[in-house]
Amino acid sequence: MSKEIVVLGGGPAGYVAALRAAQLGAHVTLVESREVGGTCLNRGCIPTKALVAAVERLRLARGAGEFGIGLGEPRVDFGALMARKTAVVAQQRGGVEHLLKGRKVEVVAGHGRLLDAHTVRVEGGGAERDLTADAVIVATGSRPTMLPLFDVADPRVVTSDELLELDRLPESLAIVGGGVIGCEFASIFAELGVSVTIVEMLDRLIAGEDRRASAALTQAFRKAGIVSLVKTRVERLELADPQRVGLVVGDGATVEAALVLVCVGRSPMSRGLGLEEAGVELDAGGFIVTDKTQRTTLDGVFAAGDVARPPLLAHWAYRQGAAAAENAVLGSRLAVDARLVPNAIFSHPEVASFGVSEEQAKAENLSIVVAQVRFNGNSKAVVEGENDGYIRIIARADDRRVIGASLVGLHVTELVHELVLAAQAGLSLDDIADTIHAHPTLAEGVGEAALGAVGRGMHTL
Fold first, then answer.
1. Tell me: the pLDDT tens digits for 96-122?
2. Which residue among 222, 279, 383, 450 has the highest number of C-beta atoms inside a 10 angstrom radius?
3. Are 420 and 446 contacting, i.e. CB atoms less than 8 angstroms apart?
4. Any residues with CB less than 8 A from the CB of 414 and at least 6 apart, and which?
């Protein structure tokens, strides 16, 4: 007899958990109060990258004259741009729905609440239904964090959710928060002609990345006309002008904008699920406490994705969801490891990283060697007219095995995966150097960095 698995939440962790559990022969019920695909597909990764794709084409059109192609100033149809974004989301969501149907996953619309380790009560459409399960996987995701200072009831103050549903471009945009989300939106809206100011209370943008990456992105933003105010805290809002918002910051200055985007982090959607009442431990931030097998403190209940603590990344959620499903169905103890999760920031320029950073290595007294190359010597980057940026690979000094990397520049969100794979497989800089990389490609920068580090570089000094 097949096992009964109930999954709460249909985002990246939830739908992958449902698909994997069904693949292993379980009967799966997926409970979701909104659309399948979760934040990533509907209000995050996919719609944002649809906008990134649009502004990339706008940037290329504006720069066509450098390649001898006269186009003039392109015209932006914001309504059409947003319509395409919506269509892309619908197409991707339809794909997930098709997969769930194909694996015979029962999708139930409603809000699920844990009664005990093996019972979930679903409320929706004015009715209640109790589901009995051999195991429950909680994957309810996260929502934008909103500070008490800001009121999203005011249409001039938005989170990323509302920003992705705009029907017209604002004249100016103030972004509170200079992390990944804030910097991606800054790149998008600046390219669309919006005056953008970022207000960040920490000492640099994308503070989770290497300081070189932060500095490179800040410099690129400065060239693009994006104002970055770091070590700056918003103290209060001035709302007297119905067309604008004034952000009064720590030094008494006022940042004015037609629209304010608040992106200061995300909070787990763990409340109102009956978790603590049933015996599932939450940490101080409201995240579900799990071990590396995604088991919670209540036997038979697993958790995966954003609700189960950072990093809050869709690809990490995929891995957690799949592991939770295998452990729930098979009773195994498959563990996940966050050390090699790649980070990808789709700003302009792109930023990518994984593993041990140079700063972390210094703090931990690790002996490392850094393989590096700048894109200004890469033929493909020069041909493309995008030769700012670099590749830096972190390796252990004793055996030169790869343990991390930091990259800035054209398509580095794709390039990083060769290095993640190298670290996963325990490969060294010598192994990368011995791998032939096609010419001219951006990827040969990875090979050239390794060659230089082992004393065999031909195109670096």
1. 999 999 999 999 999 999 999 999 999
2. 450
3. no
4. none
Q: Provide φ and ψ at 108, rounded to 5°.
A: -115, 125
Rounded to an integer, what distance in angstroms lies between the CA atom of residue 182 and that of residue 190? 12
Distance CA 277, CA 116 (A): 8
pLDDT in tens, 347-402: 999 999 999 999 999 999 999 999 999 999 999 999 999 999 999 999 999 999 99
- 69, 151, 175 from 205: Cα distances, Å: 35, 24, 12
- Over residues 296-351, the pLDDT tens digits come to 999 999 999 999 999 999 999 999 999 999 999 999 999 998 889 999 999 999 99
Distance CA 232, CA 200 (A): 6
Summarize pLDDT for 278-299 with one digit per residue, the tens. Answer: 999 999 999 999 999 999 999 9
How many CA atoms are closer than 13 Å to the CA of 301, on its beta-carbon side?
Answer: 27
Q: Is the pLDDT of residue 1 over 80?
A: no
Residues labelled catalytic = 439
Burial class (CB in 10 A: 0-12, 13-18, 19+), 386: buried
pLDDT > 90: percent of the chain: 93
Interhelix angle 78-102/12-23, nearest 10 degrees: 30
DSSP annotation of 306 reads G
- Return d(Cα 405, Cα 423) in angstroms, integer: 10
Q: What does the block give as tokens for 224?
A: 């693009």
| Residue 395, amino acid | A
pLDDT band at 211 (very low <50, low <70, confident <90, very high): very high
Length of the chain in terms of residues written = 461
Q: Rounded distance, CA 348 to CA 164, Å?
A: 19
In degrees rounded to 5, what are phi and psi of residue 37? 105, -20
Whole-number Å distance between alpha carbons of 345 and 371: 22
- Looking from the CA of 158 toward its CB, the CA atoms found within 13 Å total 19
In sequence order, the 6+-apart residues with CB closer than 8 A to the CB of 210 are 353, 357, 358, 359, 392, 406
Write phi, then psi, for 346 (nearest 5 degrees): -95, 50
| Residue ranges in 272-388 assigned as alpha helix (H) | 275-278, 314-330, 358-363, 379-384
Task: List, as one string, the DSSP characters of 75-124.
Answer: PP-HHHHHHHHHHHHHHHHHHHHHHHHHTTPEEEESEEEEEETTEEEEEE
Cα–Cα distance between 337 and 319 in angstroms, integer?
Answer: 9
> What pTM did the predictor assign?
0.95
